[in-house]
């Protein structure tokens, strides 16, 4: 909601624009005022809506034209003033003033203000006023309302500016069709979504407890029993099907907001909409969907216990048949308050655990959200809003992990969700390995991977559940990923897959390792298709020797076809938890220059204290303007350690 309102008064000469402004400020009638009153600023603490209000007077003479047009373009709301004793000033509203605003390309709310009601002879009914105003409101939808006042008495002067403020802060146009006297489709959709989110037990009605929670969330106050009964009685009388089983139905909820708007209480409906994140265009705001959430470099994002609790509870609510899985219809209903299933393009639920009928299980559901949070936490944040995460701040459902480098330095990994890249030649069995991990059936027919495939499952490590995400890129995206340091730095493990029955398969991954700088990533080699005859690889050394030379365990032999996976996924998770155990060439290969410096200083100290030469060299390297740690190579360090004074 905006924090300031600019109100412009226009109208023919002599209708009393300047007098209205003066009467508001002086709280009394001033008979002689200047032609145009200077702009008035009203501080927020004085106004009911707690916004800064600017009131701008204008003239209608030929010399005022340029200034008037400039102010019309700057206004948030325009009050067109006419004089009750001057019918011509009223007639010019639809024939001159309103068309003039449109000609200038201005589309802001308009309030019609009938001044000098003290000069009217006799009483006028609301019906008579409506007969005059409704034809104008029908033709010009920007006209919000009409207020009659007297600057002389003064009477209803403050109401003029109150309604002007409301027209900006709580506009009618997005919510209500004044011609048809019905809620607009976008408003109906927003209110239906709010109703669905407030219907905690999904029984189609808001019971007393749910209405109280709705009242607390929106208005910070409980709903009194007498108020509740009054609402129910009114809805029961006027809205067919509005009450069922002593609860408020969706039809009743929509009826209430229609009545609020028709009775001029738009602030009630707008308060509800804004509490649920809607802007004036009745779309959820970006700040609501994506609140500020900083993720430092080298850190990842996981669901917190509160996040897992929310997704567990929402799963159980929508599992209507209580079979422990969400089928297609149940998922559609669950995502009805959102733009749709966020994983529709990923062949979900093939990406996670599902039962024999293809319904996603609770374990698969939590695993899928764990993967989504790791790979794109902004999607999780947005869907927490779409699905109605109940508490603020919503960021409490997520937690930021310790940096990977810190984990590796301490030798203890504190994270619970790990990312593993799966690379290998076409036809080596990568996709089959991923499908096996998600408990999907083996497919004998080979289909080349044309786009990235990602799957997730839980892995039990010493009684603790960890989530492992496996990604296969396909030949189209593999090079793009592996040459990008930002992408390789977020990988916890890289698995090289080769077909043990294909003589050329291992050469592909050997060349891959030479082409890209990947030795800082913990590594595992997997030999697939072990049910087939073992082939000698056309490579300078065989895979087992190759791995031993790198200080890695020999390739894990698996056969997805026969279901022999040798607990390879447990091995991957174990490596992620103990990354130093699987660095190609030993842990020293992944150490930074600073880490090597610390190691050499420690070694020297153990041998009997730092040498003078070492101290001098370190100071030289660290002094301002020096070439940095990269200039210190292992031979220098060895020479210094071996030559003590």
TrEMBL record:
Q: Which domain of life is it from?
A: Eukaryota
| InterPro entries in alphabetical order | AAA+_ATPase, EF-hand-dom_pair, EF_Hand_1_Ca_BS, EF_hand_assoc_1, EF_hand_assoc_2, EF_hand_dom, Miro, Miro-EF-hand_domain
EC annotation?
3.6.5.-
**For this UniProt entry, what's an example GO CC term?**
mitochondrial outer membrane
- UniProt keyword list: Calcium, GTP-binding, Hydrolase, Membrane, Metal-binding, Mitochondrion, Mitochondrion outer membrane, Nucleotide-binding, Repeat, Transmembrane, Transmembrane helix
Query: Which CDD domains does the entry link to?
Result: Miro1 (cd01893), Miro2 (cd01892)
- Where does this protein reside within or beyond the cell? Mitochondrion outer membrane
Judged by the first EC level, this protein's enzyme class is hydrolase
What membrane topology does this protein have? Single-pass type IV membrane protein
Task: Extract the GO molecular function terms from the UniProt entry.
Answer: calcium ion binding; GTP binding; GTPase activity
Instruction: Please cite one Gene Ontology biological process associated with this protein.
Output: mitochondrion organization
* NCBIfam families (alphabetical): small_GTP
Q: Which family does it belong to?
A: Belongs to the mitochondrial Rho GTPase family.
What does the function comment of this entry state? Answer: Mitochondrial GTPase involved in mitochondrial trafficking. Probably involved in control of anterograde transport of mitochondria and their subcellular distribution.
Official protein name in the record: Mitochondrial Rho GTPase
